[in-house]
Design a protein that fits this description.
Oligomer: single chain
Low-confidence stretches: 6-70, 72-82
Shape: globular
Mean pLDDT: 76
Number of helices: 6
Number of strands: 11
Helix content: 10-25%
Order of helices and strands: HHEEEEHHEEHEEEEHE
Strand content: 15-25%
């Protein structure tokens, strides 16, 4: 399982920090900010820009502005600081729930079919150390001082499908003005006839790149990206054929406060 997820992480790792996987990995080639070059996909015409990829991509889209369930709000308050904007930028865990205050969403797993990687497993999958991951997760290191960091990895135990929350800090590559859309457009340049779209996701406007399974060797990959301040938050779904994107997306819900 770790080996499979490690290959997925290598495939989606940004900014050229790892070497490419050769001819076997045709799924994702990291855009490089180091030389300022990129191969961009064609931007959609304006009237087509808001088209949804599929109904599955919209399952976690909401327009409600407030929390009406007091118990849900209490659950959030019990594990996060008084203000979500004061939460650790990497997010926090409470048992089977991961809360991300930076992009204002949460991931809820059952601990059986889906579970979160712990710090040691994330370290093994990303080629770092447990101490490094814990230092990020507990706020002793800042993602604003790093190039690419991993806030959460959820995995489907049986299939190895994953949900990966990663942060990209383009300022560390002397490209501080790079947007979430430009980031995904660089990624899209490797594939055939793929376009980056705007979608409503988790109550916000995200950019999305949907890569069909036939263009990867790890299954369907769908990447949502949004820029919050200096950081581009990327939520990557990599789905085995036995797990639907709809199921995985359904584990994410917005935080309202």
């Amino acid at each position: 399982m770790l080996k499979k997820i490690s290959s997925i992480l290598i495939a989606i790792l940004v900014l050229g920090s790892l070497a490419g996987c050769g001819e076997e990995e045709e799924a994702y080639s990291s855009p490089s900010f180091n030389d300022g070059s990129s191969e961009k996909a064609t931007v959609l015409d304006a009237e087509d820009d808001m088209a949804s990829i599929s109904d599955a991509l919209m399952i976690a889209s909401y327009t409600d502005a407030t929390v009406t369930d007091a118990s849900e709000l209490d659950a959030i308050v019990s594990v996060l600081p008084a203000s979500l904007t004061d939460a650790l930028p990497m997010g926090v865990y409470d048992k089977n729930v991961y809360y991300n205050g930076l992009a204002e969403f949460k991931i809820t797993v059952d601990g059986d079919d889906w579970r979160f990687f712990d710090a040691e497993e994330v370290a093994n999958a990303t080629g770092t150390t447990k101490d490094y991951i814990n230092n990020l997760w507990y706020g002793y290191k800042s993602p604003y001082d790093e190039e690419t960091t991993y806030a959460a990895i959820a995995t489907h135990v049986e299939s190895g499908s994953t949900i990966i929350v990663s942060y990209v800090n383009p300022e560390n590559y002397n490209m501080p003005d790079y947007s979430a859309r430009e980031y995904l457009e660089m990624a899209a340049g490797k594939y055939e006839d793929l376009k980056v779209r705007h979608v409503t996701f988790l109550g916000k406007k995200y950019e999305v790149l949907d890569i069909p399974a036939e263009q990867t060797n790890v299954g369907r990959r769908t990447q949502f990206a949004i820029k919050e301040g200096e950081i581009i938050i990327v939520i990557t779904f990599t789905m085995d054929e036995n797990v639907s994107l709809e199921e995985a997306v359904g584990l994410l819900t917005p935080l309202y406060y």
